[in-house]
Amino acid sequence: MLSTIAAAALPILVVTLALGGVAKTATAGRETSPGALARLGPAVLMPERFARAATYACALVEFALAAGLLVVDHPAARWLPVAFFAVATYVLWDLRRRRPDVGCGCFGDVSDAPVGLRSIGRAAALTAMAALVAAVGVTGLPHVTVETAPWIGGGVALLLALSPEIDEVVSRLRHRAPCEQRPMPPGRALSRLRGSGEWRVHAGSLLADEPSDMWRELCWRFFVFPAQGDAEVVFAVHLSGRRPAVRAVVVGADGRVAATDDRGDASLRESTPVSA
User: According to the model, what pLDDT value does residue 266 have?
Assistant: First the structure.
């Protein structure tokens, strides 16, 4: 049974790595808006001038890992993808905690939605698949058989369900404008904010029901509310998705972050002015 599942996981891993490499190469190779690459995936952790090179490097690693699974019959070629996807899972979790405004960049600029549990879950699922392939010792050109076909279908369905890029692809196929160009009335974003958990956490400390300031940056709408202790609570509402991400920080009178939300997203305030 395990050998059959591993044989089904191998082509999924190869195709996923190859698609990720192609998408990253295409994204890095075409003209993008200033700083666009620096808002995708691990590139946010390094200076912007290195973002393009980092994207190309990640794509080359994915191509090499895919080729290794196909043509190299050695334990290292099978365990390196495990390490790659395990590190990717941790990095995505850390990005979601520290930089909730950036996308995972897993498939280039299609993966520009803020990192969520679906992206992290997909990376974890790929880690498990890669570990199974390495433990069983499957390698070489995969062959689809009657036994492996249902497992391949199930694995693909799982990854699709965990892929937020599907929403973006459907949006692009419908010729909708990208999120940063899509109109969103402030009142609708404010309604989303008031229905969020972050609002319930901070509502008791607010001194007004209406924001003292608001502005928009790309796919985020920011609201500033006066709060107790001569402070302000800055909320950020993502403008895309059925359940948009909402983040909040408390800023003291001196302009410094006095507290963070339960994810520790202090970096949100550090990159955003308190007033427009």
Answer: 40
